[in-house]
Design a protein that fits this description.
The complex is a heterodimer of chains A (358) and B (217). Chain A contains 4 helices and 21 strands. With 358 residues, chain A is of the alpha+beta class. In chain B, a hairpin with a 4-residue loop joins strand 1 and strand 2.
Amino acid sequence: MIDVMRAGMLSSVQDAGRTGLRHLGVAKAGALDGLALEVGNRLVGNAPQAAAIEVTLGPAVFRFMQATRIALTGAQFNATLDGAPVYAWWSLPVRAGQELVLQGPTRGMRGYLCVRGGIDVLPILGSRSTDLAAAFGGLGGRKLRDGDRLPVGALASTQSLATSIEAPAFGVKPPQWCRFAEVAHEPVRRGKHAAGAERAVAIRVLRGPEYDEFDEGSRTAFWSDEWCVTPNSNRMGYRLAGSALTRERHNEGEREVEMLSHAVLPGTIQVPGNGQPIVLMGDAHTTGGYPRIGVVIAADIWRLAQIRLGGAVRFVRSTREEARYALAEEHAYLRQIDAAIGMHEERMRRLAGRAHAA
Amino acid sequence: MTEPRIYPFGDSALVCEAPPPATLACQERIWALAQAARAWPHVVEVVPGMNNLTIVFDPLAADMEGLAREMASAWERAVGLKPSAREIEIPVYYGGEDGPDLQAVADHTGLPVDEVVRRHTAAEYIVFFLGFQPGFAYLGELDPTLETPRRAAPRLEVPAGSVGIGGAQTGIYPAASPGGWQLIGRTRAALFDPTRDPPTLLQSGDRVRFTVAEVAR
């Protein structure tokens, strides 16, 4: 059991999300930074898709009712366990009664608290993720509240030594936060950013089906603006502010021609009537009717999910080949993590063997 | 029918878009295509829209060009396939607290309340596709004499099960949510229950008929 002493702004139970149900209107939900979830679970010996606590910004406090092992991935929090610092992307043992405090993150937006055995709420429609909009899954279909108590699953006892409860702490290298594609020009700032906003993160994007329907100025602005992530953004979508994007061919006669509804996905960049793009995230509806100016490549969705409200994002033209390569690189990174944990495991076994012999 | 447009949608999806106008015959072909697409390798989502179908696949494992070709030839084969249609009756409590806008619809259409209810229950509606919310069905076609514009100010919370009219559309809100439709009634039927298999009462291709549970006066 884990006691939620302080839930913070938005904490919820999330795993890899729901698949195969979009035709019934059921959204994906799930960890918005799926890569951080996968690494965190590996660090505590779980299946990569096990459920964790997604902590958005914090501050949050959790107390562990029994000894276990945890990993904190994703955003870099100022985190302490009974006062001792806890580093992101590390796996560490926790004793019964210890308290984990997450202050605001120094980098990123969402952290994942992965616990050995996973958060063991009842799976609904194939997932333990909380669907906040449809109010089901996770803990009662809602965000966590102060005083909540979360069940932790049991792992079979034939587990590895490295990720056993008693094993010493170890860490892995985080994925690269910003791998910049070549950008030929300086982004255009439109003056809506909070003072001191960090340099815009480059997110790679493929042109959407309605891209060509936008006028030339809008297409240029789409790639050259530094878009501000407005505070209205949430797990359903990132609402951006910048130049107004307008379509050339959306008037037929007097009446505006409405698009027929079509499927939308996490990563879809749609432009409603006010011309301010919305990037859809994990909790987004399954269908929509706004023009799709672009689509974030699958490998960059987690990067986007770590951009903070008030922060800046810019879109960089990508190709299907690059999108595929980026995803293959992500898989290679996960294999490196597996190899590193495997080597650590070997060392632990050698040490245990020696201790046994002595 | 002319050729559909098949195009990539990001790095993990393909769309097959039939030429306009959207008709029931065309939508039936979309459903048949959807049925076929579920069997293709590495396809993880098959989502019908209005006059279009989106398939989502594993971008590293799937061959996009191969899937696009498969889509084109399956579309050819999908002519005139009649999907097995279920008939679903949905009992509705019209008017009163369940349908606070029934009188407004009567006023706008110039029909007596009983006639609004009669015409709403007389028609058979087809589920074209689901989206927006879990279990929300896009139904066709509303009797044109019942068309009523959306409310000027959307309600902050429409109760789950509310049956509404929004312009030329009618539908049921599966869950409590903000909404701008004119609410004419409410059903006790659960449109979405995540613990049920399948979780939604309605599916694409279903034939829906509203019946009168009660008309409040």
